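pasting for the record
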Amino acid sequence: MSVLPDVRMTEAEYLAFDRASEIKHEYYRGEIFAMTGGSPEHNMICISTSATLYNQVRGQPCKIYSSDQRVRVPRTRLYTYPDISIVCSEPHFVDEALDTLLNPTLLIEVLSPSTESYDRGKKFQHYRQIDSLREYVLIAQETPHIEHYLRQDDGNWLLRDAIGLESRIELPSIGCTLALADVYEQVTFEPEENAGDAGG
């Protein structure tokens, strides 16, 4: 992401601007951040993850949204675009445009080199302020590894790692299981023994 220099907007101005734009923008405290597209691997992981979860929630109240679904964090007023958003109650939106979700149950981000520290750090700090959010999932691109954060009854978050294509994670808030073999279908990984080889 890159901040648009010398541009500050109100929330209403941002929404009008972003809705008219051909690219997506994040918004926080008046600043606008242009969002870049994902790699082929990023896109494949998003599609595979959405597909396997959709097959499990069909016929249930849960709704799955792609990265085109804007999310607003009510307490901090961050507007952003998670890679996958899932809501298992009646969805609430900012206005009648129905393009800015307020109450996700589960959010998923596929990590990229340019956004990994943000997704792990400040972005997750914002997400934790969403009262409806029960789970947060981070999916690595370069190795089969998923980090799963589950909100506990006392408000703390429990981290569980799933490593390797034979692993899977349970997503209790939506009643689904996510198998890493499904998430990383058609994704090719560099052999581990060559990962640090600089050559010649």
